[in-house]
Amino acid sequence: MTAVDAVSVFLPTRRVPIESLAAPLRLTEMQIRLFRRFHGLTEVRHDPDLSLTDLLRHAVDGLTALRDVAHRVRFVVYARAFPVVAPYPANPLHDVCRAVGLGHALAFTLTQQSCASALAAVDVAGRLLAAEPHPPGDEPLALVLTGEKAFTRDAQFIPETSVFSEGASACLVSAHGRRDRLLAYAVAQRGEFDVAGGASPARFQREYRPALAEVIGRALARTGTTLADLRLILPHNVNLMTWKRLVKLIGFPLDRVLLDNVTGAGHVFCADAFVNYRTARERDLLRPGDRYLVAAVGAGDGATFAAMVFEH
């Protein structure tokens, strides 16, 4: 059974107040107030002195569990929101793999699901590992990476919805781990929500929460888990209001949704799940046997709604 063996997160220490983004992003005073007071987004992490390679390298270097098992890593899956994150011929993924001794692994990028790509990457990594032949005692592993720079105006904020932070994560995945086992994965890809292609933004906003609630319900049903059985929900850090309305819709206690990182870090592209997982572990919010749910939504050429149920 696919399992998360270890997680490392890197966030730049440089904190940028929302107000300072008004001029470079051409935001009005009303938009800034919306982000801060209504959505709970007060600051983000940006560091112009750190490259994308730096972000990924810091995350991998923080994954101490990797040091003794690097030779067992067969796959490196880089999940990201944007199809292109560096000018040709730069390849931060391969640069990092070579630098940390993973040049032997098959490394590739997974995208097209925007900020939900990280959950797809964990699922893909588990499937690849399950099909990988290996001698006894030499179980293969996969490394799932996330991390992006807020390098354009479109990569810095979603109008009226969220603001992006820079950061990265590294997640070690095994096919038969005993901790943080993946019990179910549900996903819905909705091409009709292609706002850039002319779809109605109002319709997307109207159906956003019901669509995510449906995916959450489907993931829970596959494991025989109810909302009451969940110890915690690890959300995507889009904003506070979305989650306040969603938990009201599904009937789940707001205090069991880990929302603290929304205000302190903003939306860290595909890394939100791992940022929140690290916080949950640091605060000892998960005990052995606890079930928890990870949710993510990606919006771009359509929308992807995804949810995973884990057992700690």
Q: What does it look like?
A:
This protein is α/β, with parallel strands linked by helices. The protein folds into two domains: 3-174, Peroxisomal Thiolase, Chain A, domain 1, CATH 3.40.47; 181-311, Thiolase/Chalcone synthase (Peroxisomal Thiolase, Chain A, domain 1), CATH 3.40.47. It has nine helices and 13 strands. The protein has helices at residues 22-25, 29-38, 52-61, 92-99, 117-130, 201-221, 240-250, 260-265, 272-282; strands at residues 3-10, 15-17, 43-45, 73-79, 106-110, 141-148, 157-158, 162-163, 167-174, 181-190, 230-234, 291-300, 302-311. The strands form four sheets. The protein has a five-stranded mixed β-sheet, sandwiched between helices. Helix 4 links the parallel strand 4 and strand 5. Helix 3 (52-61) runs parallel beside helix 4 (92-99) and helix 6 (201-221) packs across helix 7. The protein is globular and about 60 Å long. The chain starts with a strand and ends with a strand.
